[in-house]
Give the backbone structure.
Amino acid sequence: MNTPSVGQQPHGRGHSEGHGHDLAGLLAQVACGDHAAFEAVYDKLAGPVYGVARKVLRDPAQSEEVAQEVLLEVWRSASRFDPARGSAAAWVMTIAHRRAVDRVRAENAATAREQKAAPDGDTSEDVFELVDMALDRQRVRRCMGSLSALQAEAIKLAYYGGYSYPEVAGLLGLPLGTVKTRIRDGLIRLRDCMEVAP
Amino acid sequence: MSAQSHELHLLTGAYAVDALTGDELDDFEQHLRQCRSCAEEVSGLQETAARLGLAAAIAPPPSMRDQVLDAANRVRQLPPPGVRRITADGPRPRRRLIRRLPRPIAVTAMAAVIVVLAIVQVGTRHQLQQAEANSQAIASVLAASDARIELGSSTVGGTVTAVFSEHDREAVITASGMPTPSDARVYQLWVMRGASARSVGLLPGSSAGATSPVLADDVQPGDQLAITIEPAGGTRQPTSSPIAAIHTRP
């Protein structure tokens, strides 16, 4: 997840370092039309991309559509990924989250989300990088635990819930300014906790 | 730092989790282009947000893998940013446009899918000639700068994809993964406006799971593209409820 060329942390970040490097390298191959590399990217990121879509959209069919769009977008615009500007995983996940949020904010999405709310899918991850994912999950959980309750709640509603920050403010009954700063402060604390560069 | 830019700076977190909307989003993105420290902070917080996403991984439906990998065979890739075609509008505005409008990218990608579907799915020479005549109109919709893609699910399973150009007032529709209708039944496509329905024609039979694209003309924003199951040969007006409906949006 780390950028191999720019902004790397000299002390490294264990498993994620190699993982991220792989992914950036794979994307460079994908940009050259390498289908095998795209398969490898799929196997690494289809789970997170689909997972984030499910978190935000809930509806499995819509989530699958969004995940497919995002992954094809990765294939299509792999040449536009610039390792100097961030990690490969962040590039893909930013596209995925934005696409899911766009979908949820499109008309009727709010009602569709309530009507179609399905339980979270089973979390069998056998096809994915089981160890990496488990470590990520563990670290995220641990770092989330270091936030104040309000920071954690605001971030979860915004990121996993796909709510805009004024909506988060409404849900939590807090002033806009408070939510704005809680999200930022919370993310900064998470960033430091997870040692994400820069 | 002015009071206003300080206010904007506080939005880095909300921006990184896509929690900004409307004018505030536009203002912040404009600010981001001038504020190096904001851009750096956003980049770091996006890495953090991505970790939240990675931690949410769940196994997608197994069928998705083949669908995506297969579709990649038919999607033309963007050239590297260094390779620039010489065009009147130049590459810079183009790139900015792409960054700011993520949705049309998918349109082009899916458009490529549809065009190739059109080509691979016609078997005979006669069909090929017909497809060629039709494909020009279809290509025009798919290439329209305002083309948008809309996806819908069908109640009998499968996905319906429509690419709509408000400028051309046309839409291209294709369906995939829908079961073959039972004997003496067909899928019929309609443009629905208010209470009226106009037949576009029958959905062609599918091969390899997807139908050839169908062109619908005189489509306006707000119209619905709907599919019903009808007796063989089709009907003048729908006789059953749609199994899929897609709203066209401007």
